[in-house]
Amino acid sequence: MFQKIAIATLLASLPISALAQDAEGAFTLPDLPYAADALAPVIDAETMELHHGRHHQSYVDNLNNAIEASDAPEGTALEDLVAQAGTFTTAIRNNAGGHWNHTFFWESMAPTDETGEMSPELTEAIDTVFGSQEAFRTAFQEAGTGQFGSGWVWLIVNDQNQLQITATPNQDNPLMDVADQQGTPLLGNDVWEHAYYLNYNNRRAEYLESWWDVVNWDVVSERYQAALAD
After folding, report:
1. What is the pTM assigned to this prediction?
2. DSSP state of 180
3. In order of start, what are the domains of the chain with their CATH numbers?
4. How many helices (H) and strands (E) does the chain have?
5. Is 194 marked within a binding site?
6. What is the pLDDT of residues 171-229, one digit of tens each?
7. Residue 52 among known ligand-binding residues
8. Is 178 helix (H, G, I), strand (E, B) or coil?
9. Strand-pair partners of 157
């Protein structure tokens, strides 16, 4: 079971900025790691401003409110709220997931001239599991397109130290104790309509295909090495 994976591995996958809490223990919205228009034309500035400044901000605000209205101790770390999501209220589960997922998402991307390259180790692992880079991308896109309604598609390292593609509904993620398939996320794409609708309308498959142009392979490769290091 995923719970047997050392906590250090889980922490290694967490974006540091998502852990930020102010002096009172409230969570805060992390800055984007690039300008709002830096991922255009794949993701336009207006979508980024709405997605980060409105949607992500609402998850942060609602998470703080949900914690205040619950029995969860103030100052509980985000990784604990996510890992133990099934023990908290639905509001905490949804909004802790929304906060973690979006911070992870922003940090998974970069402008097209700054995306780096997939490490040899990750390249070999993908080729071994999926057969080729093209087959991996096709499987990832199919999982994202096939996710009914809102949710996320992920590349994870599972408890067998194997790469696996999985999808989660709503704002769940593979770190949660409620996830059907648990593991350490390496890459995740948001398939909620607000992530792509202004540019792509209902063409989710087109968005998923275009998105590869802004995937930050340096970061994904670092996550893979961290997941295997434990």
Report:
1. 0.91
2. S
3. 2-34+43-111 (1.10.287.990), 113-229 (3.55.40.20)
4. 10, 3
5. yes
6. 999 999 999 999 999 999 999 999 999 999 999 999 999 999 999 999 999 999 999 88
7. no
8. coil
9. 163, 184
